[in-house]
């Protein structure tokens, strides 16, 4: 079996993989990074979204060997090393941009990529960017609000959910 070497969340890793191993399987089974979810196995839902060299990629659509030499960021690498939530993660919490949480890692990773490319997206741009991420619980309203908040824009509707 061949080795694949890449950087995952800032750490260089080498893993022996079968040629048919998907990146999502290497991350989850090989490295124990289970925040990258497998939702559909058909590259439709976005639950397995990661950043590969800063670009959003569905980890179920790429072989681990294709990621050789790249920098991969999973949901586990989005927060600060001390565990402080990123601006995007905090906004998802504050504006309840989650419900069951299954799609949340992919949404957060996609939003992180969006704001890196377009720091002040319109509501239409947010909705377009997140088309590849399915949420079966929220109806997207609070997700869009969370993205608006993370971008420094005033979200439409009510204020952030207050912590008790």
Describe the structure.
This protein is 29% helix and 14% strand. It is an alpha+beta fold and 164 residues long. The protein folds into two domains: 3-77, Ubiquitin-like (UB roll) (Roll); 87-150, [2Fe-2S]-binding domain (DNA polymerase, domain 1), CATH 1.10.150.120. The chain has a five-stranded mixed sheet with strand order 2-1-5-3-4, with helices on both faces. A hairpin with a 2-residue loop joins strand 1 (3-8) and strand 2. Helix 2 crosses helix 5. The longest helix is centred in the last third of the chain and has 14 residues, at 104-117. 43% of the residues are buried.
Please mark out the parts with pLDDT under 50 across 5 or more consecutive residues, or reply none: none
Provide the CATH top-level class of the largest domain.
Alpha Beta
Structural domains: how many = 2
Element order, helices and strands? Answer: EEHEEEHHHH
Portion of residues in helices? 25-40%
Distinct helical segment count: 5
In terms of DSSP E residues, the strand content is 5-15%
> What's the rounded overall pLDDT mean?
93
CATH architectural category of the largest domain? Roll
β-strand number: 5
């Amino acid at each position: 079996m061949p080795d694949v070497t890449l950087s995952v969340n800032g750490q260089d890793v080498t893993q022996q993989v079968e040629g048919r191993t998907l990146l999502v399987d290497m991350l989850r089974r090989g490295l124990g990074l289970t925040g990258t979810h497998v939702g559909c196995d058909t590259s439709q839902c976005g639950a397995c979204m990661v950043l590969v060299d800063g670009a959003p990629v569905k980890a179920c659509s790429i072989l681990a060997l294709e990621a050789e030499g790249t920098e991969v960021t999973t949901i586990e690498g989005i927060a600060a090393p001390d565990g402080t939530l990123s601006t995007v993660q905090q906004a998802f919490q504050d504006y309840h941009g989650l419900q069951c949480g299954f799609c949340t890692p992919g949404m957060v990773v996609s939003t992180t990529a969006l704001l890196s490319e377009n720091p002040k997206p319109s509501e239409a741009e947010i909705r377009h960017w997140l088309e590849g991420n399915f949420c079966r619980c929220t109806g997207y309203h609070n997700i869009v609000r969370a993205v608006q908040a993370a971008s420094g824009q005033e979200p439409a509707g009510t204020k952030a959910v207050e912590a008790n």
